[in-house]
């Protein structure tokens, strides 16, 4: 029987998430390991890092090992009127590690929903993001935001594009004093400044936060964005996910490619986000597409830190033998121990720096216990 305990956390997640996405009608999407480099040059602001591994193909074109999956899926799908394409993937991407500053091969799983997107599709993807986190850990939280609300707030105060970028940075940093300084330097009224500052302090459960949002939604654009957001939040609450979802506008900081809802997922014992996603209709338009789109990715490399505890033992048993022991007898003893559910290391002498539960020695056909550390 297959023993799932031998799998790494990220490998277990792949099996669980693949099964989850199939239950909701998402089909596997397989792609090449590389794309034409021009795809990433034209959309470099969408990438996590500007650094891309390139090489020249046999036809002379400059190719790149893919640093991102979404761009490849958008490139390799077509607009289908009144249809929603639902795909999931399990792919490796190649990015620069924040820790080592060297390229790293990263296993990534996620899904994309592309086409005539409506409120249900948005809800379904967010709920699958929450269920993905639950499949990884019982202790998780999903932070949710809406770029349409942030964008409408900035539009309502009439600030310049450059000033808006600075304010977005401060919102992402939850920097209230920074926002107040920018507003003062750009003659933004105290009332409008307070409206922006309120977004920085907007954090918490859906039922707690929505009333405070209604208080600042005083334009048609803000009211429309909030109405969509409330519809999505209502579905999430009624589906039983409300307690695991927080509204947090600090994650709504990129309006170049994203629109509508954006979200990030966290699990206990992992200090960084393990999941991120959102609506990216703006990216679709930039790539000449008419469809809407929403999706997310689970960063499986971060799961190496999940439940990271020091192992008490490296191996259950060390079985010592000498030249008098027949190979067949040794093999029989090992097979018996393995059949009992123990893992065994066979050695002629006791190795250094190996933590073992039990030290055994085989004499002829008999196995004797020399030491037991339980």
Provide structural commentary:
37% of the residues lie in helices and 26% in strands. It has helices at residues 9-23, 37-42, 70-75, 119-136, 147-157, 161-172, 176-185, 190-200, 206-216, 220-238, 281-286, 327-339, and strands at 27-28, 34-36, 54-56, 62-65, 84-96, 103-115, 140-146, 203-205, 245-248, 259-267, 275-279, 292-299, 315-320, 344-347, 356-363, 366-372. It has a 9-stranded mixed β-sheet. The protein has a 4-stranded mixed β-sheet with strand order 14-13-15-16, with helices on one face. A 3-stranded antiparallel β-sheet has the order 2-4-3. A hairpin with a 5-residue loop joins strand 3 (54-56) and strand 4 (62-65). Helix 1 runs antiparallel to helix 4 (119-136), helix 6 packs antiparallel against helix 7 and helix 9 runs antiparallel to helix 10. It is elongated.
């Amino acid at each position: 029987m297959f023993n799932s305990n031998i799998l790494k956390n990220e490998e277990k997640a792949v099996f669980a998430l693949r099964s989850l996405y199939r239950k909701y009608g998402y089909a596997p999407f397989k792609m090449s390991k590389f794309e034409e480099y021009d795809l990433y040059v034209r959309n470099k602001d969408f990438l996590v890092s500007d650094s891309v591994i390139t090489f020249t193909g046999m036809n002379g074109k400059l190719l790149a090992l893919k640093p991102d999956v979404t761009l490849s899926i958008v490139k390799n799908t077509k607009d289908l009127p009144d249809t929603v394409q639902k795909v999931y993937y399990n792919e490796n991407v190649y990015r620069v590690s924040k820790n080592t500053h060297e390229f790293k091969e990263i296993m990534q799983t996620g899904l994309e929903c592309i086409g005539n997107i409506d409120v249900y599709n948005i809800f379904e993807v967010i709920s699958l993001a929450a269920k993905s986190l639950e499949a990884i850990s019982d202790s998780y939280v999903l932070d949710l935001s809406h770029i349409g609300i942030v964008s409408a707030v900035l539009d309502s105060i009439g600030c310049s594009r450059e000033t808006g970028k600075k304010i977005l940075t401060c919102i992402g940093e939850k920097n209230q004093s920074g926002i107040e300084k920018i507003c003062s330097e750009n003659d933004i009224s105290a009332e409008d400044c307070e409206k922006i500052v309120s977004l920085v302090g907007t954090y918490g459960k859906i039922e707690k936060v929505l009333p405070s949002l209604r208080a600042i939604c005083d334009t048609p654009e803000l009211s429309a964005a909030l109405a969509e957001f409330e519809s999505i939040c209502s579905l999430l609450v009624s589906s039983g996910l409300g307690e695991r979802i927080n509204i947090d506008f600090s994650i709504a900081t990129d309006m170049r490619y994203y629109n509508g809802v954006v979200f990030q997922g966290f699990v206990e014992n992992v200090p960084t986000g393990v999941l991120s996603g959102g609506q990216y209709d703006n990216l679709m338009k930039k790539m000449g597409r008419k469809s809407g789109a929403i999706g997310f990715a689970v960063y499986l490399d971060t799961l190496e830190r999940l439940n990271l505890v020091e192992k008490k033992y490296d191996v259950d048993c060390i079985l010592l033998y000498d030249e008098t022991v027949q190979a067949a007898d040794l093999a029989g003893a090992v097979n018996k121990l393995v059949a009992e559910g123990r893992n065994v290391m066979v050695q002629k002498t006791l190795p250094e720096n190996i933590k073992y539960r039990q030290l055994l020695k085989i004499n002829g056909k008999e196995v004797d216990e020399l030491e037991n550390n339980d």
